[in-house]
Amino acid sequence: MAEGIKTIAENRRARHDYHIEETHEAGIVLVGTEVKSLRQGRANLTDSYAAVENGELFLYNMHISPYSHGNMFNHEPRRTRKLLMHKREIVRLLGQTQQRGFTLVPLRIYFRRGRAKIELGLAKGKRLYDKREAIARRDERRRIDRALKEHNR
Questions:
Q1: For position 1, what pLDDT does the model report?
Q2: What is the pLDDT of residues 25-71, one digit of tens each?
Q3: Quick check: 80 and 59 in contact, CB under 8 A?
């Protein structure tokens, strides 16, 4: 684990469903109860995605559970959240998503030096046969590892 990084949630399904071409780090604009809820590890990245809208980057469908002691100041769990990146990075991502057919998929959310960050993957969807091929490779790797372990005993 890198120094000062505490992972809160990971989107493992994304690596199964998409070819991740490159990753980018972005900050997230959060309200107070969201930060407290994240510190408790209560986030879910399943079915979430990011998109560029009016020159700004937004994250949709990420679920952060309401803070248990938040009363009337609690947040909406699936609200749209603004992401913070440099303008030139956002423009570059916009070009890639529009022209080359990529999607921005959140891979993990974490704290770096006390600030909430999200790792976005520039991804292209896998076909069904790609998924089957990946599963076959993983099973083959497991079988080889098992055989080597047995051989070394």
A1: 53
A2: 999 998 888 888 888 888 888 888 888 888 889 999 888 888 877 77
A3: yes
Q: Which residue has the tokens 């089957």?
A: 132
Q: Which residue has the tokens 């076909």?
A: 127
Taken in order 2, 60, 23, 90, the sign of the CA dihedral is: negative
Q: pTM of the prediction?
A: 0.74
Burial of 143 (0-12, 13-18, 19+ CB in 10 A): exposed
**Of the CATH numbers 3.30.70.20, 2.60.120.260, 2.40.280.10, 1.10.10.10, which one belongs to the domain with range 5-126?**
2.40.280.10
Q: Where are the domains of the chain?
A: 5-126
